Queue: 2 jobs
Job 1
Amino acid sequence: MTDWRSGPYVRDLVAASHSATYSVHPGPQWTVVRRTDVQLPEHGWKLHVSSRPETFAELTERLVPVLLAEGCGFKLAAGSAVLAGLNQGREAPGTVGKAVTIYPDQSRVRELGLALADLLRGHTGPRILSDRRVDEDAPVYYRYGPFVHRWYRGKRGVMAVGILGPDGEIFDALAGLEYRQPSWVTDPFRPAGEPEAPELLGEAVYGMPELHRDAIREASLVAGPGCYPTAALLGLWPLRDLMRDAIVDAKSGVSGAGREATGTTHFVTVDENVSAYKVEGHRHRAELEQELGSETPITFTPHLVPLDQGLLASCYVTAERELSADELRGFALDGLNRRLNIIGVPLGAPAR
């Protein structure tokens, strides 16, 4: 196999019709193509196109004119021999398959990704483990990552590439062997909340034994409940048939935020402070709606409190009819609800 070089081809193509808006920078590993009138953001969604060395020239000749017409910057392997080395993953497994990296306009990520998938359908290349695939029949992938590398001191003092999020969270942005994305971004190719394996939804059972004990016994797939829904559902379940609406005021210790240290979990941020977070839509809200019924309006506000661990959910309900104190206690302590480990206390006594 001859070592086909991308630099001369791209340079000639740009010189013929795009010299006013593009500059080409051939190097030993990459041929970099930049827009002269556009400043790239520090990070964002990027597209990758995978290829094998023997078909790299064909892919480039099909792809590059489209990218130039789209008006986005990109880089591609300097040649077929370089691509062969990248695909072996000797220096970094995260480079396998990344023949072309594209830096699209962030408002056009989805449209361009789908268009490139149609263009390159049937072309083959190694799977890019750090990315998600746009279409199973095309070698087009995507991930959120840095356009400009910013280094920080990560775990155990090791230098790492990071992206600083809006709440001070640092996302380790170095490509690895699995797909990851920052918590503050939404996948442009998947609607928010869309499950990764929708075909399994029909057989999954919500794994709260207090509510679904018999179904769990027979299930082959059990979904683990979140911490907030567990606390809230134990309190709200007895009144589920009488609720007009519900308010869940929930508070969690720092361990509930996960192992990774972020700007919002530092001692100086949490100590002697209470802060609400993700009030516009917490991921656990969907579990409450699933179990209590989506027709019941639910106001759910989680808070971070200065405790190592622990969780408290104070739940308030507007009932369909007036309830006496004795009737309310009867709902809580009768029949199925005995499974919920509810402890009744006399009126006026402090909750424990």
Job 2
Amino acid sequence: MSEAASRFGHFHDENGRSTFRVFAPEKHKVVVHLTDTGHALPLAADPLGYWHASCIRLAEGSRDLVELDGRRSPDIASRRQPDGVHGASAIATPQRASSPGWRGVRIEDAIIYELHLGTFTPRGTLAAACENLRHLAELGITVVEPMPIAAFPGHRNWGYERTYLFALQADNGDYSDLKRFTEAAHALGMALLDVVYNHFGPEGNYSRVYGPCNPADADGAQFRLSDTQRSAACRATLVLASGGVSERGEMHALRGGNLSACRSEVARGGRIQ
């Protein structure tokens, strides 16, 4: 499988062009609408149910909506939702954190501080939290665990009702803020990111529009996939590994790319990344 075939949402191809890839296996027509210009970009389907098309490189912050069989909705693989979970998606390129020499924290040494970004500082942002990380280190904290930072409805939330796996909650800041926060935490010997992948929150959950979903599980909107589709979707899903946020739009926290493998590694005395 090529690198492009393992990614979805918006990304830049090897020629620097903007590419959209949408998973909607039972749809008959998929179009990306570039709302800033009014242009429409028809997508072509492949045998696995992915739809894709490329265009000239779009500017950061450009807005888009995905139309599936006549219904428009945000891109569920969006990297940013500046106007909330119901608004248009925005082009955003995650930035890879650079932490030379970072090797994680041994579980036996971990003193974990679960951090709610909305209440940790008056500003409630990653940038403000970054300015106060040293206080946690002086307190004796060895692992800082921001609560889930993926996009959720409203402005303040614990993060467990998120509806976009790939989008950083806009109230927390942008990807440059997340990069600086990750690097600052690593420099102080601390890092861990809390994530949730086993359910969606009900508000702003447009996965059922893309389908196919189990009707009896409308709020959770779990996809019904063939083994081949499931394998392809898993390879395209957000990868957990060390280092912050990759150039491929992946928020990295735990080493290995597999939660079960990470838990096994920690049980064997592995390191928290």
